[in-house]
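Morning F.,

Quick status update on the modeling queue. The single chain you submitted on Monday has been processed. Sequence for confirmation:
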Amino acid sequence: MLSESRRVLESSVAEIPTSELMRQARLIRDKTFGSRVTYSPKVFIPLTMLCRDKCGYCTFAQPPAKLENPYLLAEQVLAIAKQGAKAGCHEALFTLGERPELRYEVARDWLKQNNYDSTVHYLHDMAALVLKETG
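Structure tokens below.
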């Protein structure tokens, strides 16, 4: 149950036109944070598109049958990272599914054949490789 003061506040806010609420919010934001907008160019590295989850909203994850390989090879990761660095990217954004080795045998087999016990360990090594080779 809402407290009386909160109910009154929400009732009062509901009476203010949206354009005025937006104007006031903009003033508070600008006073607090200023008007500078920053960004950090990132290169997108899809380490694997396999995932153990089945989220209805996800358009990234794919089943093994739709993939040529379960994971990007180190050479592919490095090639993407170098292209990103050449384009001015300052960060690498590794994307991957949630522990695909728990759901897919092909992921477990690939990791084992490449001397990894988990996707996270492979991610660690690929991140270290990208950092070493591209700064």
